[in-house]
Amino acid sequence: MKTSAVSVTIPSTISDVERDTGLAKETLRVWERRYDFPRPERDTFGERVYPSEQVIKLRLIKRLIDLGYRPGKVIGYSADELQALAQKSASSLRDETSLPHPELQSYLELCKTHQMEAFRRKLTQAMLVMGLKNFVVNLVAPLSTLVGEAWACGQFAVFEEHLYAESVQIVLRSAVFSVPQVNHSSGAPRPRVLLTTLPQERHGLGLLMAEAMFAAEGAHCIPLGVQTPLPDIVEGARAMQADIVALSFSATMNPRHVNDSLRELRARMPEQAEIWAGGTNPALRKRPPSHVTVCELGDIGPAVAEWRQRQRQALS
User: Fold this and answer.
1) Do residues 29 and 44 both lie within one domain?
2) Are the beta carbons of 179 and 136 closer than 8 angstroms?
3) Could you read off the pLDDT of 272-302 as tens digits, one per residue?
């Protein structure tokens, strides 16, 4: 007897879509009202479910938002038009910043061919040769940008980007754990740095890169991971007597939300604790809050040195 299998695509819940695309549930609901897209169906319990073709289009829209487009400008395009626009935009960005170094392309090729063990070995060898700080600033940071561009062009699948991020995090965590502990009892003060992201920020690679830079400067790092509620950040900073709360913000977060959250955090934090922030969010580049120290990865070393100098002056 001959049988045939029918492929059935199961619609995604709103939580599935949020996790898959990086678009918050609130954003999806707002777009539904404002732009009439997405157009979810309803399951037997009346909950929103999203057909696969809508999820694919939402991924493409998210790519273009990461490249600087506004939702209202692109949400009416078809999936094919969105894909073409993403490829064109990412290619233009690459032309403006020049082609990546061939060495970076060799790392990218290992990821594309899913040779992750070889990829991690190559990263580890480079870290041992370059030293932790140079490794983060001159290899991991530009390589992560290159992977992001490849994802925006559709050259990297979502799972491949996750493979890349997880592999880099494995290498960085091992490197941070191996940093020799420096005794500052008779020398420069050692800042206690609490590192985390807000609940709307799920990207943790930038945070781990910052932790590696702080650790290389001899700071005492207190990582909380990602998506920590603001009251818990405040409680953790007080309990751990943090000198610095370091936050990472990707381009996915609403800039207004970033500014509002930083203001609220400053109002709740102990006066002596400083707030440092980094990442690609426009809120940190256009008009950074006056009460926050905005740092690129390469700025962390000099900023820690300045912090220590202020501490010496306060004690003298």
Assistant:
1) yes
2) no
3) 999 999 998 888 887 778 889 999 999 999 9
